[in-house]
What does this fold into?
Amino acid sequence: MDANTCTTEVVRKARWPRAFLFAATFAAFSLAGCGGDDDPAVGTTTPPPSSTTTGKAAVLLGDAAGDFYSYTATLTSLKLVPASGDPVETLTAPVRVDLTQLQDLSELLAVAEVPTGTYESVRVTLDFSDASIIASDIDGTPETLQAVDAGGSPLSTLVLTINPASPLVITEDDTLPIAFDFDIASSSFSDGAGHVVVLPTITTTTTPDADRVHGLGGQLTAIDGNTLTVRLRPAGMAAGNLGEAEVTVSDATVYEIDGSSSTGTPGLTALGGLTLPTPVAVFGTLGDNGVFTASRINAGSSVAGADRDTVVGTVIARSDNTATVLGSIRDHDGGARSFSDAITVDLSDVQSVTAGDVHAGETLSLADVSVGSRIAVLGACNGACSGGNVGASRVQLFPSRADGAVIFNTDAAEDAYMEVNVADINGIPVDRFDFTNTSVDPGLAAKPFDYYVSTTGLTLGTLDPGTQVRVYGFTAPFATDNPKDFIAYDVTKAADIPARMLVSWTAPGSSAALAEGAEGSLTFDMADPGLGQLHHVYRDAEAIDLTMAGSNPTVSQGAEFQGCVVYDISDNALTQYDSYAAFVTAVNTALGASGKLRGFAARGGYDGTSNVVSASTCG
It folds into this structure.
């Protein structure tokens, strides 16, 4: 749309958005070091006047998948705005946030006590003056970009008004979860000149996504039976806290405490043996009632960043006990995180290798760390951390993901495997990896164009050659004679993975972007002269050019519709619709009033035969 009404323009390189596994995000979130100042008076939420009845707002922050290695800005304010009266601040201090660390994860950022009542909008302030934005180009090479606004001017402070589909209602003594999902892939595009144009797409819900892992970090201050009290301190907060959260544990909760793993009562007992307050990173689910139930807890020195420097990323090469990692590095003293595509990690003095998820409780060793492994390293930087050289003392291992096309598949009961032509591992193009030393037999070293994946124990059905798949699991042990390269615990056909549609129009946008189509849907004219560089559907490693599809693409409401948003550049306002019909009406109305469409994004199922996207979200 034009300056009066505009959906977010999305101009990105033509490749599938690279999501990280939720379990791999455990490692990334654990980097949210939570040590330091234990003064509860510093940075705590200031309660409203005693004459006012109050409830609590639990603020969660997450992100959809995107092609960024780092996307860091400072969240300086998040206010709830009532129909009348003054806005209510939920943050007591600025928080530096790297949204790439929140892909497939929602972080419980703050729990604020606020007056009861109805709040019609949310005002979010983001400071981009010291932003760190590093994108992945087509071959995976990092590219540092400067944030600019829609007019191309350097972006400093961005104040957004978010209008939820329904008002936010705070009731007395209750906790209302408010989840904000920043879709940076749909909110940012490179202009090809070293800039990233920021046109935000943010959705809000009071029903946290049950399929997404929720996490929180901070200081454990009390244990009362199966209930823990945690003072919240996100990774980007140097001191103080953003309120308190109550966490419930169960017999199934997995603990890693000072490098030792346990489950249930033994873990809770070990947790109780720590001196409080102590750093914790907690993962689980936040219910609609604001109750956080933990599935995994890292505590003490097992919280990456608590008392050691940390690296999190993917091993792209290994020679003996030296690993090269593409990822981020953080100095635990200063808390600064930086990205590098070649961090050198010395594994010679590693004391323990631990893992969560499907490896919880198993005894692991350095042999389990191979090329393609997703890891978090705790240790000490050799010199300044910005130099990218770290001596490891502890390694945490998490599942990896490989995308590619099936070459051959056999479901033999005792030795089921498939050969895959792999395009990327953990979203990193395979050209970035050196598999030379993965086997003691050079002839058995992993080959991405003929990657052997063990599928023993899985029921896969028919996987014909050429079928695009996404494989979750762990790399095979390093430097052995194992003929397999990867041990899978799940295989998904790309056709079953939600697709993403991205279409852009050249500035200032197009008023003729839509073609005639079915009522209640949006059909886009691929012959529009104003069509920009993006006109694709991405699904796994597959990119479908919609201008070559033979018909104009249509976006209809999907069976699992969650909502769509419209971004108005003129007043920096985002309006969310929980009715697809209402969203379609808003778009058509704006175009009828001389509006111009700058860009469109949708996630959902895609039928290539009919060229229809069944949207779960769009904007």
